[in-house]
Amino acid sequence: MARGGAFVVGQVLLLFLIGLSGARSGRRGSVLGLALMLAGGALGLRGGRNLTPLPEPLPGGHLVTGGAYSVVRHPIYAALLLAAVGWGVYRGSGVALGWTAALGVLFHFKADHEEAALLGRFPEYAAYRARVRRFIPGLY
Questions:
Q1: What is the CA 104 to chain-centroid distance, rounded?
Q2: Tell me, what is an example of a GO biological process annotation in this record (predicted)?
Q3: For residue 108, is it within any domain?
Q4: Could you tell me if residue 54 is inside a domain?
Q5: If 0-12 CB within 10 Å is exposed, 13-18 middle and 19+ buried, where does residue 56 land?
Q6: Residue 96: inside a domain, yes or no?
Q7: What is the pTM assigned to this prediction?
Q8: Does the chain have fewer CB atoms within 10 Å around its N or its C terminus?
Q9: Cα torsion 129, 135, 117, 53: sign
Q10: What is the dihedral of CA 54, 57, 60, 65, to 10 degrees?
């Protein structure tokens, strides 16, 4: 788990809990929730191919700063959070939204781990990090 496997295990568990708690809510149907899930899916698809579930750069990988990465440093994490918020809203599940908040905290620490590795491997990451926000354009 030295490469960040515990983050991946936590991520999978929280995504399962989000899905399960939303499914058990018994409510359906917010247009806003559906729109957020679709936006999360669209952002996730724009995340690129240089991906690994572990918070370590791939051997032979390269630093990506264009496309979705020009808007946020971690578009896959942002996409999962957006879709999870959408799911909680769509299903009217406060429990799913609570688990989504926990996922946001986990992604904060996973991104810290990942960014330390990226700084060590790509000196130009410091300038990129200074100009592009982590998960929410212009805010965070």
A1: 8
A2: methylation
A3: yes
A4: no
A5: middle
A6: yes
A7: 0.90
A8: N
A9: negative
A10: 130
Domain interval for residue 96:
11-48+65-131
Q: How far apart are CA 31 and CA 8, in angstroms?
A: 31
As for how many domains the chain has, the answer is: 1
pLDDT at 1: 52
Whether 124 is covered by a domain: the verdict is yes
Predicted local confidence at residue 6, as pLDDT: 92
Angle at 52 between CA 98 and CA 11, to 5 degrees: 20
